[in-house]
Amino acid sequence: MAEAATKTREAQATEAERELTDGFHLIIDALKLNGLTTIYGVPGIPITDFGRMAQASGIRVLSFRHEQNAGYAASIAGFLTKKPGVCLTVSAPGFLNGLTALAHATTNCFPMILISGSSEREIVDLQQGDYEEMDQLAIAKPLCKAAFRVLHAADIGIGVARAIRAAVSGRPGGVYLDLPAKLFGQVMDAEAGQKSLVKVIDAAPAQIPAPDAVQRALEVLKSAKRPLIILGKGAAYAQADDAIRTLVEKSGIPFLPMSMAKGLLPDTHPQCAGAARSTVLQQSDVVMLIGARLNWLLSHGKGKAWGPPHSKKFVQIDIEPKEMDSNVEIAAPVVGDIGSSVSALLQAMGEKWPAAPADWVNTVNAKKEENIAKMAPRLMNNNSPMDYHGALGVLRTIIKERPDAILINEGANTLDLARGIIDMYKPRKRLDVGTWGVMGIGMGYAVGAAVETGKPVLAVEGDSAFGFSGMEIETVCRYQLPVCVVIFNNDGIYRGTDVNPAGSDPATTVFVKGARYDKLIEAFGGVGVNATSPDELKRAVNAAMDSGKPTLINAVIDPAAGSESGRIGNLNPQSVLSKKK
Ligand SMILES: Cc1ncc(C[n+]2csc(CCOP(=O)(O)OP(=O)(O)O)c2C)c(N)n1
Ligand SMILES: [Mg+2]
To answer: Count H helices, E strands: the chain?
Structure first.
């Protein structure tokens, strides 16, 4: 009798359990329902079990050594897939570590959701000193596109849906989702829980440009004697590659790709004006911006780089109406998503669109050929220690032979010179420091790009730049990702030759001389190589790309080869006093 009663009670208990769900499971279900199946993060209170359960449920959960790198991985996942990349952090310090990446995603218009556990609201709001106490929602708000907090399990579905929609619709950006510790364990009826989930329909609705805006743009373009098209990373993000290529080719207009738009059309395309950048910026009379902003990277559309004042008319295609006239007058604003706008322009161009003015095209081509010829011999040197050109000449050939590989690039000289020298052949293959020129994206991007695309990754890193995320080399080894890191080791920031005039500590821009970064990866079972000549570098990178094994190559660069701040030394403020001396 007693035995039978126990059995019934057990059966009843399982029955009751089966009918309940909780915050942990609802968050997992909400993410999966919306196709968010990869999480980048760092575990700890209150999200450790959540990470475990997510992993057990089939979500790919990648653990990093620092949240900033997990955040950068999520941000680049967003750029590559047009779905929000998800980063998961613990409260206060973990959240703050992830916040830089969230702000970076917003600035760069990458869709990303930072999900952070947080401490008890009652204690946080009374400032009673909870474990990792912080009013995270308030802190995140000014740094992202939208910020939400979910307090009740029944609202998880709506909370996740709002976060997804805010991240990807219109101009994409970072979204913060605050999940207090208590939410995870909150229990509710399983059926009601399932019904509370929301599948986001048409998360990034097409935004069709107005027909008269399209006509206006074409009239301005038609009036041009020296037209130019500038492609920005918004154009790369749009994944409207065929339409963009057709528009550029149909117009016959020279185009200039911004850094992360390189490869949208090959850099070797006859219309690519990358090698004649200063000429086309100065001399063009009509410039059509496609998903490119007139920020500092384009000298705000005015000043010396742009030739005589008021010598241009701008056509701008952007999804964000507020972008128009941000720096200079836009003669023909086209507000819409890039895909819809480019298609509308193409259609309205009709069959009889005139060829681009031949004298202008010839001028651009002549300048281009001159610059390419000037550069060629420098890229073929086999100096040891290497200079930037010798080392980059080798990497340029490797990318030409492996156009599917993803190139990640950060540093100062290492960035600016690689951007100019390494041609890209396919869209969204070049990932770099972006709008802020931020150091630290390297290993996070490498992990994110390898995980999201399954393609081999070549990360070309200044020795300083690498240091910001270097510990993630363990993450690369742990997940056995096909990542080859080449560190341009010139013993420091910009150059390794600075001397402290006071003679005490080392100068502020120099590192340990002759450091062997290749030894780092050996600690985690990866392949380390010290390369002192372009030939050695070439052999090592090809071997790494062939094997797909995590590899770190210490490329020894002449410490005197670089220049202050790479190509943007002009942005450094100058002291009048030190000049007088
Ligand atoms: C987060 C962040 N901190 C600091 C900087 C300033 N900064 C710009 S480039 C750079 C490093 C340049 O040195 P390296 O990566 O070794 O490249 P090199 O010029 O030596 O090739 C630094 C620290 C930055 N851009 N971002
Ligand atoms: Mg350096």
So the answer is: 24, 19
Distance CA 47, CA 179 (A): 9
Q: How far apart are the C-alpha atoms of 32 and 38, rounded to whole Å?
A: 9
Omega of the bond leading into 227 within 30 degrees of 0 (cis): no
Q: For residue 385, say if its preceding peptide bond is cis, omega within 30 degrees of 0.
A: yes
- Cα 198 → chain centroid: 28
Q: Whose CA is nearest to atom 9 of ligand 1?
A: 412
pLDDT of 5 > 80? The answer is no
Closest to 551 (Cα-Cα) out of 502, 480, 492, 494: 480
* Cβ proximity of 216 and 341 under 8 Å: no
Report d(CA 538, CA 527) in Å as an integer: 15
What's the distance, CA 572 to chain centroid? Answer: 25
In this predicted structure, the answer to whether residue 274 has a pLDDT above a threshold of 80 is: yes
pLDDT at 6: 55
Q: Where are the beta strands (DSSP E) in 490-577?
A: 527-531, 551-556
CA–centroid distance, residue 458 to ligand 1 (Å): 19
Sheet holding 112-118, edge to edge: 60-63, 38-41, 85-89, 112-118, 174-180, 146-149
Question: Any idea which ligand is nearest the CA of 411?
Answer: 1
**Residue 126 token pair:** 């009374």
The two tokens of residue 361 are 């095209």
Q: Please tell me the distance between residue 387's alpha carbon and the centre of ligand 1 in angstroms.
A: 18
Q: Cα(61)–Cα(238) distance, rounded to whole angstroms?
A: 27
The one-character DSSP state at 312 is -
The closest-lying atom of ligand 1 relative to the alpha carbon of residue 496 is: 20
Measured distance CA(439)–CA(109) in Å, rounded? 18
558 pLDDT above the threshold of 90: yes
Give the pLDDT confidence score for residue 200 in this predicted structure: 98
- In angstroms, the CA 131 to CA 413 distance is 43
How far apart are the CA of 414 and the centre of ligand 1, in A? 9
Region 108-125 average pLDDT: 95
| CB of 72 closer than 8 Å to CB of 41 | no
Q: pLDDT for 173-189, tens place per residue?
A: 999 999 999 999 999 99
**Measured between alpha carbons, how far is 144 from 252 in angstroms, rounded to an integer?**
39
- Confirm or reject: Cβ of 488 under 6 Å from ligand 1: yes
- Contact 186/23 with Cβ under 8 angstroms? yes
Q: How far apart are CA 483 and CA 563, in angstroms?
A: 28
Query: Is any ligand 1 atom within 6 A of the Cβ of residue 439?
Result: yes
What's the whole-number average pLDDT of the chain? 96
Residue 576: its pLDDT value, please?
A: 85
Q: What angle do CA 203, 200, 54 make, to 5 degrees?
A: 115
Give start and end residues of each alpha helix (H) in 331-440: 338-349, 358-379, 388-401, 413-421
Please indicate whether residue 388, judged by its CB atom, sits closer than 6 Å to ligand 1. Answer: no
